[in-house]
Amino acid sequence: MTARMSADHRRELVLQAATRAFARSGYNATSTDAIAREAGVSQPYVVRIFGTKLDLFLQVFERALERVSATLEQVVDQVAPAAATGTEPTPANAPQRLGAAYSALVRDRDLLQVTMHGFSAGGHVPRIATVARAGLGRIHETLRRGGWSEEEVRDLVARGMLINVLLSIGAPEHAQDGTALAGLTHVTLGVAQ
Protein backbone atom coordinates (compact mmCIF):
# COMPACT_ATOMS: atom_id res chain seq x y z
CA MET A 1 0.00 0.00 0.00
CA THR A 2 1.38 3.44 -0.95
CA ALA A 3 1.41 6.03 1.80
CA ARG A 4 -0.44 9.17 0.93
CA MET A 5 1.63 12.36 0.83
CA SER A 6 0.58 15.09 3.28
CA ALA A 7 -0.66 18.40 1.91
CA ASP A 8 2.31 20.16 3.53
CA HIS A 9 4.73 17.77 1.84
CA ARG A 10 3.09 18.26 -1.58
CA ARG A 11 3.13 22.02 -1.06
CA GLU A 12 6.86 21.88 -0.27
CA LEU A 13 7.52 19.79 -3.38
CA VAL A 14 5.71 22.35 -5.52
CA LEU A 15 7.70 25.19 -3.91
CA GLN A 16 10.94 23.35 -4.67
CA ALA A 17 9.83 22.74 -8.26
CA ALA A 18 8.80 26.39 -8.61
CA THR A 19 12.21 27.45 -7.33
CA ARG A 20 13.92 25.36 -10.01
CA ALA A 21 11.57 26.60 -12.75
CA PHE A 22 11.82 30.28 -11.78
CA ALA A 23 15.60 29.97 -11.41
CA ARG A 24 15.85 28.63 -14.96
CA SER A 25 13.50 31.03 -16.71
CA GLY A 26 12.75 33.98 -14.44
CA TYR A 27 9.42 35.34 -13.37
CA ASN A 28 8.06 36.48 -16.74
CA ALA A 29 9.01 33.43 -18.80
CA THR A 30 7.87 30.78 -16.30
CA SER A 31 4.31 29.55 -16.54
CA THR A 32 2.28 27.72 -13.92
CA ASP A 33 2.13 24.90 -16.49
CA ALA A 34 5.94 24.64 -16.45
CA ILE A 35 5.95 24.62 -12.65
CA ALA A 36 3.26 21.91 -12.58
CA ARG A 37 5.29 19.77 -15.01
CA GLU A 38 8.41 20.26 -12.90
CA ALA A 39 6.49 19.23 -9.78
CA GLY A 40 4.65 16.34 -11.42
CA VAL A 41 1.23 17.75 -10.56
CA SER A 42 -1.56 19.40 -12.52
CA GLN A 43 -1.58 23.11 -13.30
CA PRO A 44 -4.96 23.59 -11.56
CA TYR A 45 -3.43 22.03 -8.45
CA VAL A 46 -0.64 24.63 -8.45
CA VAL A 47 -3.15 27.44 -8.82
CA ARG A 48 -5.44 25.98 -6.12
CA ILE A 49 -2.57 25.85 -3.60
CA PHE A 50 -0.79 29.11 -4.41
CA GLY A 51 -3.25 31.29 -6.32
CA THR A 52 -1.53 33.26 -9.03
CA LYS A 53 1.92 32.83 -10.51
CA LEU A 54 2.85 36.10 -8.81
CA ASP A 55 1.79 34.78 -5.40
CA LEU A 56 3.88 31.66 -5.95
CA PHE A 57 6.91 33.64 -7.11
CA LEU A 58 6.65 35.91 -4.09
CA GLN A 59 6.76 32.89 -1.77
CA VAL A 60 9.76 31.44 -3.60
CA PHE A 61 11.57 34.80 -3.62
CA GLU A 62 10.81 35.47 0.07
CA ARG A 63 12.16 32.03 1.01
CA ALA A 64 15.37 32.72 -0.92
CA LEU A 65 15.83 36.09 0.77
CA GLU A 66 15.12 34.53 4.16
CA ARG A 67 17.88 31.95 3.56
CA VAL A 68 20.31 34.74 2.71
CA SER A 69 19.32 36.74 5.77
CA ALA A 70 19.54 33.69 8.08
CA THR A 71 23.01 32.82 6.76
CA LEU A 72 24.29 36.34 7.35
CA GLU A 73 22.66 36.41 10.81
CA GLN A 74 24.55 33.23 11.77
CA VAL A 75 27.87 34.77 10.81
CA VAL A 76 27.10 38.09 12.50
CA ASP A 77 26.07 36.23 15.67
CA GLN A 78 29.37 34.30 15.60
CA VAL A 79 31.81 37.08 14.75
CA ALA A 80 30.30 40.25 16.06
CA PRO A 81 28.22 39.72 19.22
CA ALA A 82 30.36 42.08 21.28
CA ALA A 83 30.44 44.64 18.47
CA ALA A 84 26.66 44.78 18.51
CA THR A 85 26.71 45.85 22.16
CA GLY A 86 29.64 48.21 21.63
CA THR A 87 31.92 46.36 24.07
CA GLU A 88 34.41 45.16 21.44
CA PRO A 89 35.23 46.00 17.83
CA THR A 90 34.10 43.70 15.04
CA PRO A 91 36.90 41.21 14.23
CA ALA A 92 39.01 42.23 11.25
CA ASN A 93 38.26 38.97 9.40
CA ALA A 94 34.47 39.32 9.78
CA PRO A 95 33.90 40.64 6.23
CA GLN A 96 35.84 37.69 4.79
CA ARG A 97 33.80 35.26 6.89
CA LEU A 98 30.58 36.90 5.69
CA GLY A 99 31.79 36.71 2.10
CA ALA A 100 32.76 33.04 2.45
CA ALA A 101 29.40 32.10 4.01
CA TYR A 102 27.52 34.06 1.37
CA SER A 103 29.57 32.60 -1.49
CA ALA A 104 28.88 29.08 -0.21
CA LEU A 105 25.16 29.83 0.06
CA VAL A 106 24.75 31.25 -3.43
CA ARG A 107 26.61 28.37 -5.03
CA ASP A 108 23.11 26.90 -4.85
CA ARG A 109 22.40 28.14 -8.35
CA ASP A 110 18.64 27.98 -7.92
CA LEU A 111 18.76 30.25 -4.87
CA LEU A 112 21.17 32.56 -6.66
CA GLN A 113 19.13 32.81 -9.84
CA VAL A 114 15.82 33.28 -8.00
CA THR A 115 17.27 36.22 -6.07
CA MET A 116 18.72 37.72 -9.24
CA HIS A 117 15.43 37.29 -11.11
CA GLY A 118 13.53 38.72 -8.14
CA PHE A 119 15.64 41.87 -7.94
CA SER A 120 15.38 42.29 -11.70
CA ALA A 121 11.61 41.70 -11.88
CA GLY A 122 11.15 44.21 -9.08
CA GLY A 123 11.82 46.90 -11.67
CA HIS A 124 8.47 46.26 -13.32
CA VAL A 125 6.36 44.31 -10.79
CA PRO A 126 5.59 46.45 -7.74
CA ARG A 127 4.76 43.54 -5.40
CA ILE A 128 8.08 41.88 -6.21
CA ALA A 129 9.85 45.20 -5.59
CA THR A 130 8.18 45.38 -2.17
CA VAL A 131 9.51 41.94 -1.23
CA ALA A 132 12.97 42.83 -2.59
CA ARG A 133 13.10 46.03 -0.54
CA ALA A 134 11.98 44.21 2.62
CA GLY A 135 14.56 41.46 2.10
CA LEU A 136 17.39 43.88 1.44
CA GLY A 137 16.24 45.87 4.47
CA ARG A 138 16.52 42.76 6.69
CA ILE A 139 20.01 42.13 5.34
CA HIS A 140 20.95 45.75 6.05
CA GLU A 141 19.62 45.50 9.63
CA THR A 142 21.55 42.26 10.20
CA LEU A 143 24.80 43.80 9.03
CA ARG A 144 24.26 46.98 11.05
CA ARG A 145 23.71 44.79 14.11
CA GLY A 146 27.22 43.50 13.51
CA GLY A 147 28.61 46.92 14.33
CA TRP A 148 29.53 48.05 10.83
CA SER A 149 29.03 51.63 9.68
CA GLU A 150 26.62 52.52 6.89
CA GLU A 151 29.56 52.77 4.49
CA GLU A 152 30.89 49.36 5.54
CA VAL A 153 27.43 47.82 5.17
CA ARG A 154 27.17 49.36 1.71
CA ASP A 155 30.49 47.79 0.77
CA LEU A 156 29.46 44.39 2.16
CA VAL A 157 26.17 44.46 0.22
CA ALA A 158 27.98 45.63 -2.93
CA ARG A 159 30.41 42.71 -2.56
CA GLY A 160 27.43 40.34 -2.23
CA MET A 161 25.90 41.72 -5.41
CA LEU A 162 29.24 41.34 -7.20
CA ILE A 163 29.39 37.73 -6.03
CA ASN A 164 25.87 37.24 -7.43
CA VAL A 165 26.82 38.64 -10.81
CA LEU A 166 30.06 36.66 -11.08
CA LEU A 167 28.34 33.40 -10.19
CA SER A 168 25.34 34.14 -12.44
CA ILE A 169 27.57 34.57 -15.47
CA GLY A 170 29.68 31.53 -14.68
CA ALA A 171 32.87 33.50 -14.03
CA PRO A 172 34.44 30.86 -11.73
CA GLU A 173 34.12 28.19 -14.41
CA HIS A 174 36.02 30.46 -16.80
CA ALA A 175 38.60 31.94 -14.40
CA GLN A 176 41.34 29.88 -16.07
CA ASP A 177 40.48 31.15 -19.57
CA GLY A 178 42.83 34.11 -19.30
CA THR A 179 40.01 36.63 -19.63
CA ALA A 180 40.17 40.09 -18.15
CA LEU A 181 37.50 38.97 -15.68
CA ALA A 182 39.77 36.31 -14.14
CA GLY A 183 41.45 38.80 -11.80
CA LEU A 184 38.17 40.16 -10.48
CA THR A 185 36.85 36.61 -10.06
CA HIS A 186 39.96 35.61 -8.14
CA VAL A 187 40.00 38.59 -5.81
CA THR A 188 36.24 38.31 -5.15
CA LEU A 189 35.71 34.55 -4.96
CA GLY A 190 39.20 33.25 -4.34
CA VAL A 191 39.09 31.23 -7.56
CA ALA A 192 42.58 30.42 -8.85
CA GLN A 193 43.60 32.16 -12.04
Structure summary:
The protein is an all-alpha fold and 193 residues long. It has 10 helices and no strands.
Relevant terms:
mainly alpha; 75% helix; 0% strand
Question: How is the topology of this model organized?
Answer:
Layout: H1 7-29, H2 32-39, H3 43-50, H4 53-79, H5 81-85, H6 94-106, H7 109-121, H8 126-145, H9 150-168, H10 181-189
Helix pairs in contact: 1-2, 1-4, 1-7, 2-3, 4-6, 4-7, 4-8, 6-9, 7-9, 8-9
Q: What do you see in this structure?
A:
The chain is mainly α and 193 residues long. The protein has a domain of 133 residues. It has 10 helices and no strands. Helix 4 runs parallel beside helix 8 and helix 8 packs across helix 9. The protein is globular, with a radius of gyration of 19 Å.
- Described by its quaternary structure, the protein is single chain
Based on Cα principal axes, name the global outline: globular
Largest sheet entry? none
Strand portion: under 5%
